[in-house]
Automatic annotation (TrEMBL):
Protein name: Translesion error-prone DNA polymerase V autoproteolytic subunit
Peptidase S24/S26A/S26B/S26C domain location: 45-162
EC category name: transferase
SUPFAM superfamilies: LexA/Signal peptidase
Residue intervals passing through the bilayer: none
Enzyme Commission number(s): 2.7.7.7
Record InterPro entries: LexA-like (IPR039418), LexA/Signal_pep-like_sf (IPR036286), LexA_repressor (IPR050077), Peptidase_S24_LexA (IPR006197), Peptidase_S24_S26A/B/C (IPR015927)
Segment forming the signal sequence: none
PANTHER family given in the database record: LEXA REPRESSOR, LEXA REPRESSOR-RELATED
Alphabetical keyword list: Autocatalytic cleavage, DNA damage, DNA repair, Hydrolase, Nucleotidyltransferase, SOS response, Transferase
Gene of this entry: umuD
Originating organism: Acinetobacter shaoyimingii
A single GO BP: DNA repair
UniProt family annotation: Belongs to the peptidase S24 family.
Length: 170
């Protein structure tokens, strides 16, 4: 079949297989259990990502990652991500995310949502409707995955707000 050169890229994109929606029924959530406290020293000054400052040898403060990362231990859980639907938000397959159930989700937050008894991690979008309730939908941060616009008989339940991405670089 002959295709006009101006349409080649568009047709290749159309022919690419689209991934299925990444909703899952069962989650392997792990609750947070703080057993130890580890204070990591850090310098009082900030440093640009470049040549290290000799002043970094002088630390006067400490940070406890438990306190820094977790606001409410009873309501915080860890979940391993198994989809690329949030790739452009920095969340990739194998990353672990912290989810806090005690936080109120706002427009633009990344959330763990329940829709039709299936869980998904997406960005919460709220659109103001004149004289009506806000229109709520879930945005995938990867154009290869579909956004989720609930039908009239579907309800989105926000299970928790993603507060942190745990990603090992090495």
């Amino acid at each position: 079949m002959r295709v006009p050169e101006s349409k080649v890229i568009e047709i290749k994109e159309w022919l690419k297989p689209k991934p299925e929606d990444d909703r899952i029924e069962h989650l392997d959530l792990k609750s947070i259990q703080i057993h130890t406290q580890l204070k990591i020293p850090y310098p009082l000054e900030s440093v640009a990502a470049g040549f290290p400052s000799p002043a970094q040898d002088y630390t006067e403060d400490h940070i406890d990652l438990n306190e820094y990362l977790i606001q409410n231990p009873i309501a915080t859980f860890v979940l391993r991500v198994n989809s690329l639907s949030m790739k452009n938000a920095g969340i990739e397959v194998g990353d672990q995310i912290l989810i806090d159930r005690s936080l109120q989700a706002e427009h633009g937050d990344i959330v763990l949502a329940l829709i039709n008894n299936e869980f998904t991690v997406k960005r919460l979008m709220k659109e103001k409707q004149q004289g009506q309730k806000d229109k709520i939908w879930l945005k995938a941060e990867n154009p290869d995955y579909p956004n989720i616009y609930p039908h009239s008989d579907e309800q989105i339940i926000i299970w928790g707000v993603v507060t942190c991405i745990l990603k090992k670089l090495k």
